[in-house]
Amino acid sequence: MDEEALRYYNEAMKEIGQDEELQSKFNWKIAAYYSNSSRNGLGAPYLKKDFEYQKRRNNTHMLILHASASAALHGDRGELSLRDHYRLKALSLAQQYFVLEPSPSPSDPNEWLTYSRLLNARMDELASEGSVDEILRLWKIQEPINKKFVTPKYIAYTDTASLLVEAGASEKAKALYKQAEKVWGQESKEHQNRAHLVRRDFLCVQAKIEAGTRQFAQAANSMKECLAAWFANNLNPSPNLHRAAGLAYEEAGDLGQARENFEKGIEGFEQTRGSYTVAERLAMFQNRYLRKSYWGLIRVNARIAAQSGEKDNVLAALQATERIRARQLGELLDQQGEATISTQSLGQLKEQLDKETLILDYILT
């Protein structure tokens, strides 16, 4: 698919010649292609090509999009101060550009959708930091925009409810979830073709709220239905949703499903990681959701090993710790290296220990 997308892009760029406006559109399309497959790093060079053109045009809407895209790139790489710099720059430009009252300006709903998504992106970043008050402040800005320009409208409510759970405000999330149900009830006739996706959206938030209020058995069941709804529509859940599923299953005691979902979440985060050079991703473990996915996998493998006592499960638990070590440090020394532990080396180490000896850390070479 990548080769085909690049072939079409290169053919289009040859055809359009020096038409900068068309060049801009195709640069954004190929960048969006990579972004939609969680590989923002591969799309970055195409955005860079477009930035100078938009800067010369002084196109505020496009400059907002560029600043927000830069925030996403730095966020992927764990460069949180730069992420915040560009996100706040985008918000500052948006606050000057968008006027809701008394007469909305601009009039294009697609541009207002950009603002709504920008606010949601910032709330997502704040959720991982537990900044509930700031999320609610931004929601007060987003909600009237959503009511006037965005359709379907319930999505902003379910998305924000989900973020409030992440931030540790499950009760506030429950209240917003109830609003989402009411909003959907008012607009459902207009969006009957979306009914199969609506159930998925509500189930996923319901599962997170149940986990946030420590109803872990219910959360595991809801999360199972949530993920099934994603797969039924030939869509892939986000890495962060797999992380949340892993936590729900872990607390419910279904360690096999927990391990599977932590693994899938890590796989998605690693796909994003792989779209950047080694130098660009050195700070990637500043991403809280990525760290928590690896920590979850370590915990679950350790519990499975403790319960079974089987050699393969013990090895898997130790292997999980080596994976995170390799991602943080190992690739600086050997980009092609893999974190592996041999059964033979582990057995030799075990034979040297008496029953009262505990290893707090180890390096096997």
Which key features would you list for this structure?
365 residues; mainly alpha; globular; 16 helices
* Mean pLDDT across all amino acids: 89
Q: Calculate Rg over CA atoms.
A: 23 Å
Task: Please tell me what the overall shape is.
Answer: globular
How far the N terminus sits from the C terminus, by CA atoms, comes to 40 Å
Uncertain segments are none
> How large a portion of the residues is in β-strands, by DSSP E?
under 5%
Give the biggest sheet.
Answer: none
Q: Helix segment count?
A: 16
SSE string, helices as H and strands as E: HHHHHHHHHHHHHHHH
The structural class is mainly alpha
Q: Would you count the extended β strands for me?
A: 0
Instruction: Tell me roughly what share of residues is in helical segments.
Output: over 70%
What's the helix and strand layout?
Elements: H1 2-16, H2 20-36, H3 40-57, H4 60-76, H5 80-97, H6 109-127, H7 132-149, H8 154-166, H9 170-187, H10 195-212, H11 216-232, H12 239-252, H13 255-273, H14 288-308, H15 311-333, H16 343-351
Helix pairs in contact: 1-2, 2-3, 3-4, 4-5, 5-6, 6-7, 6-8, 7-8, 8-9, 8-10, 9-10, 10-11, 10-12, 11-12, 12-13, 12-14, 13-14, 14-15
